[in-house]
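Q: Two folds, back to back.
A: First:
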Amino acid sequence: MLADPLASWNEGVAKQAILAFITKATTAESADFVPLAERIAVFDNDGCLWPENPLPFQVAFAIDELKRRLVSEPELAEEPMVQAALSGDFAKLLAGKHFDGLMQILAITHAGMTADEFGDAVQAWLQTARHPRFKRPYDELTYQPMQELLSLLRAHGFKNFIVSGGGADFMRVWVERVYGIPPEQVVGSTARTKYELRDSGPVLIKTLDYLFVNDKQGKPVGIHQFIGRRPTLCCGNSDGDQAMLQYTTINNPLPSFGLIIHHTDAEREYAYDAETKSTGKLVEALKEAPSRGWIVVDMKQDWNAVFAET
């Protein structure tokens, strides 16, 4: 008897729907067969593949970088958004159309670094930082059920992409090691990068010029620009993923599948939808799900494990 490929999923509608779609999409004789080249699966990251509370992990990284920067540049503490970050006023940081306060913090902590310097800083942070609630390294807090889904899709010829509002450069540092997704299959928020030839060799320098925030209606745009194929499977968890779910499933000439992770487990993770202290508000996509046939995963009911055992 073959091992259950979705062992962390309880038996129920969500698990059966996933298995049924993959079987139909990859069976040549099926009316819902999806050709290999078209098996594109897109996943949000924050709140879909790992938590986004008490704040998105990249924000935690930026705040820790800010504290490090203040040692040599204490005058930065006079900036209003720096004060908000240090006092834990995350609502102020995340306000605005494009998280305007957070963009100021990212400008202070990220802009002007070379891509290699930034990557080294992310790696160093992942080795030392711990989640304030779970007391584990951030990259150990991926959802075990979603890791199983990524593996199952990969085994059936799907190409998995991350399509996230998080920074592409931040995610590309660790996604291959953590998710088995290569960095070229990451679509995230980006800004202009400058090239320079220095005495030490060529470098790429990060800026916040011409910022593209890969969220909401920006996600289908990012998919078109960076992937060039319409997805046939989409997984998200918030209204920020609604447009991506629509783009994947409405009038798609190929069979398609939409999945929403609903955070309902305050004991093992967090419970939120309309009211959230971080990102991940889920209202409109949840309302639309029944009419679109999107499967809503109840984290408390559908997952028998949240994080992998260490």
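A: Second:
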Amino acid sequence: MKNLIVIQHCQSEHHINGLTGGWTDTSLTKLGIEQANRVGNALKDMLEGDYVLYSSDLLRAKETADIVSEILGIGISLEPGLRERNYGIAKDRTSKWLKERISPLPKVGRIDHRPIEGAETYREFYIRVEDAMERISDSGSENVIVVSHGGAKNHIIVWWLGLPVEALEIASFGGCPGAITIMNMFKDFHNLDILGYKRHLEG
């Protein structure tokens, strides 16, 4: 893989109705649909060469990918390993419900902390995303677009840069719904070229 573009899914119903994210499966809002069109058109203007498109199978990511794929004229492969973190019994609950029950994040050992029953630890989450990215990399495609989630995006960046999973103890990477992150090979280096580009969402 020489070029990797990660799209954070666009605004979803859970963003505006007080539900948890994770595996709570909600569709895009009207604004989210508009954002996805802006993402697709931005990529159409900036991409060179042929790309393949992979997406998390959660609705908010798949609907983002559907719009982008139509604009770019490419197909989609769904990859459940690209899902957001599993928050176990908090699925389909409100953010308020989770906040009242979640176990506080410790100062050390964060990647092995399980915040609530049935949830993934950061390490388990990373291993799942890593496995998905290795499968995508092994497909042989040089130019790849991935539509995923804010948390999963952090794990993809750690994987691309070859950082140890322990980096997730202290590292996070900015973004927002509809943001585009661009990574590539520069000589022999895994390069993080653009993080969380969002100019296409303005105006």
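Q: And?
A: The mean pLDDT is 96.
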